[in-house]
Amino acid sequence: MSPVLHFYVRPSGHEGAASGHTRRKLQGKLPELQGVETELCYNVNWTAEALPSAEETKKLMWLFGCPLLLDDVARQSWLLPGSNDLLLEVGPRLNFSTPTSTNIVSVCHAAGLGPVDRVETTRRYRLSVWL
User: Fold this and answer.
1) pTM
2) How many helices (H) and strands (E) does the chain have?
3) Where is the Phosphoribosylformylglycinamidine synthase N-terminal domain (predicted)?
4) Helix (H, G, I), strand (E, B) or coil at 107
5) Structural domain of residue 90, as residue ranges?
6) What are the per-10-residue average pLDDT scores of the chain (131 residues)?
């Protein structure tokens, strides 16, 4: 079975504004909500027998990152939940490949990353609540 690699993208200013909007909408339903943080996760199906080399990992991180931000992609999540936090991940169903995945796979192949055969993007939320 092929491993699924995860690349987490640090929220930029745009995602911070979206988090504020999400928090305001959710506070109407959940008054205990104190904060919402988000990140993007690229879930990469890697079909090679060996894990990606340092050069291949660097290419993937470059492809998934923003050219204006330095070190905005990591292999570990930026969202570290506390004891009163809820971590949710929202994305497509895994039984079919999305058009976005098809496009990202084409870009990966053009960059020389042939073992990539599927990339699905999910949005992760950390909801902080008062209990």
Assistant:
1) 0.86
2) 3, 5
3) 82-128
4) helix
5) 4-129
6) 90 62 75 85 96 97 89 92 90 90 97 97 89 68
